[in-house]
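Exercise 3.2. Students should predict the tertiary structure of the chain below and write it as C-alpha cells, then compare their answer with the key that follows.

Predict this chain's 3D structure.
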Amino acid sequence: MCPVAPDLQTFRLMQTASFSGHPGISRRVAIQAGSIGLLGLGMNHLAPLRALADTPRTARAKSVIYIFLSGGLAQQDSFDMKPDAPKEVRGEFNPIPTSTPGIHICEHLPLLAKRSESWALCRSLTHPYIEHSEGHHVMLTGRTPLPTGFDGSKPKPTDHPCIAAIANDRLRPRNNLPPAIVLPDRIVHRTGRTIPGQFAGQMGSQRDPWFLEASPFHSEHYGAYPDYLFDHAKGKLQDANLKFQAPNLTLPQGLGKGRFAGRLDLLRQLNRQRGFLETAAEVEQFDRYRQMAVSLLADEKTQKAFDVLNIDDKLQERYGKNAFGWSLLMAAQLVEAGVSLVQVNLGNNEAWDTHGNAFPNLKNYLFPPTDRAVSALLDDLQSRGLLDETLIVMAGEFGRTPQISLLPKSYKLPGRDHWGAVQTVFFAGGGVRGGQVIGASDKLGGYPAADPQTPENLGATIYQALGIPPDMMWRDSADRPHKIYHGEPIPGLMG
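Answer key:
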C-alpha cells in the first residue's frame, strides 16, 4: 500500500525535522605511484581483470551505461513536473511536450524531449533515506537496507558491494579491458570525505571497480567545466587550472620494459604494506594482472577508446566540449571497445544538490550540458549500431522535496531539500520500450502513487541487461556466497 501524501504543512515540518547538514570530515588521502598512475588507477583495480567462466547472456542488452547524478535531481523540475500543484511546489519551470503524446518534461531539456521515442521514465522509485551517503550507498549498490556498522563519513569493508564491483567480478572480460569502469572520478563530498557505496565492500578492496580519474576533485567547484563551472551560492566560475584529462596510456619516453616492471614491483611492495595483497594467493596472481596491465598500455585500440580530446571535432561538439560531454563520449567508446558496464558520475561533489539557487543553477549550469550530452549519447550509440545493445540508466541518490524552501544564511534564492520517498529514473536503449512512463508520483511529487519500484528492482534491471543470471552469486572476502539479485527487473520496461 502506498503511503498517503501529506499536505504542504506536513511537508514543511518534515523538511525542518529531517534535513541535516553535511558532516565535515578530513580530506581524502590519495596515493599514486609508478606507471599504474598513468591510468589513474590504483593497484586494487587490477584484480577484477582475472579470467572467469563464461557468463550466459539472456537479455537483449550487452552493456550498461549508468549515469549517476550525485546530489539528487529534483523530479518536479525535470521529468515529473507538477504544473497543477501549488506555486510553492511546482517551481519556476514549465513543462513542454515530447515527441510522445501525453509525456511532458522540463522546458530546459528540449533535446531529450525530441528523442522520447528512445527513452522511458520510471516515476516511482522509492527508498527511505534523505542523507547523501545513505542515498549513494543504496542507489549504487541496489540494496535498500544499510549494512551493519554503516558509516556515512567513510567507506567500510562491511559495506554492500556496488553494482560496478559485482559486474567487474562476475563478468568475463571481453578483451584486455575490465568489465566495469567508473569515470571521470570517484564521488567525493565537498568536505573531502569519500562517499561510501562506490566500492567492493564485503568483496574486498582488491575487487573495487576501475576508477578513471579524468576529472579532478575541487571542494567548491561544480558542474561541467569549462563551460558550465559554477558554485552553488556564487554562480558561474572561471578556473583555467581545471582540465579534463583522459588517461595517458603510453609509456613515458625513456621508460623501458625493465623500468616499467620495476615500478610495478615497487607498487606491489607499497600495496602489500597497505594491506591490498594480504594472501599468498593474491601475490601469486599479481604477475598475471601485471601482464594484463602492460597489455592494456600497449594496445592501440584501447588507447583510442580512452581518447576523447583528439578525435573528430564535430563529434566532440555534439556532446559538448565539457566534462559531461567528454565523459559520456568516453563511455560510448568504452562500450564499443568491449566494456560491459560504464558508470559515469555527471558532477562530482554533489553537483545536483540544489538546496538553494536551484532554478538558475539547473537552468544555466546543469540541464544544458546534461541535455546535450545525453542526447548526443543516444544519437552516437544509434549511429554505431550499439543503442539496442546498450541500456542507459540515469538516476541520483534521491529526489527533492515537493516544498520549495529558502536557506537565507547560505543562498539568495530558494531550492529543494533531500527526499528519498520518490524520484524519477531515466532509461533508454538496451531493449527499453521508449515513449512510456512506468509508475507515478502523487499530485505533489512526494510519494509513489502507482507501481512503486525499489533500488533492488533497479539493480536487477541492470544485472539482467548485463546477462547475469538470477542464480549467480558473489563471494565475500571470506569466500562466502551471497545473492546478486534482491529484486525483480522493473516490469514493462523492456519491449
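Discussion points: The two ends are 27 Å apart (CA to CA). The domain at 61-246+320-483 is CATH 3.40.720.10 (Alkaline Phosphatase, subunit A).
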